[in-house]
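Entry 14. Ran structure prediction on the chain below.
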Amino acid sequence: MNLEQAFDFQKNYERKVAEAADYLRPFLAEQPHFGIVLGSGLGDLASRIEQSVVLPYSSIPNFPVPTIEGHEGKLHIGKLQGVPVIGLQGRKHFYEVADLAMNVGMLQVVFPVHVLAELCVPNYFVTNAAGGLNLDYQVGDMMILRSHINMIPSPLLGQHHSFKRVNDGQRVWRFQPMSFEYDPSLRSLLEQSGEQFGQTIRKGVYLAVTGPTYETQGECIAFRDGLHADAVGMSTTPEVIIARNRGMNCVGFSCITNKIAADGTNATNHEEVKAILDSAQVRHRLTSTVENFFRAYSRNIRKQ
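Output, structure tokens:
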């Protein structure tokens, strides 16, 4: 993207989001209840979306296309355990686009969340792969997000947009509260959905850094012992900030793909992380928990 294209994307951002939403709207058979990031380790879940319409990101106007292996770049519209959803198979990370001028990189990272909000999707389900800082965590565990620490530049820096909030139709706030960043009722439902997997289901605080370096020993010790983070990764928090700013409820989890030692040693690489995510046992645990969540959510809807 050259400077002229970056200027156009930044200046006309709200219109470009609207163009993407307008393109997708005719594909919606009914109002989606959730947008869900089918990130690392959740590729199997995409095939479980019923009555699905699958659209490559590249076919959607202005939609950012991921460049990282394992992020397919496909949008799925359909039902998951009877719940209408939009599945985002892959995400754009800030480290992929941090060199773009005029904050365009961050605007690309959160673009899909804005599109979901324009489509009046009320809930956002995030998933990611993360390193385990908590010494009790084991490789392959699922950590339900209780809170987060954002060390990636805020997506609310710069222009105050005129976007509307999903829940009340008012303009997005300039100064966004982040209490209850992960909805307590949805979080409780996710916890119940993973009960069959016992101690492999954790609850903790996710810390987001820009990457793409893995953390040093000093950083790991500081993050765990100083900031009391339980897991560290390179995504998610900008999306959640925008989702909350747009009036959406958030829930989600991290898959622990590597264990950081007590002395802070983080001896991992991208291939090892992918190997954990390709494990049949881990994929079954993640997929089953998410399916249980949507099955329970569907039952709750029918009771209302």
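The CA atoms of residues 217 and 265 lie 5 Å apart. Will compare against last week's run tomorrow.
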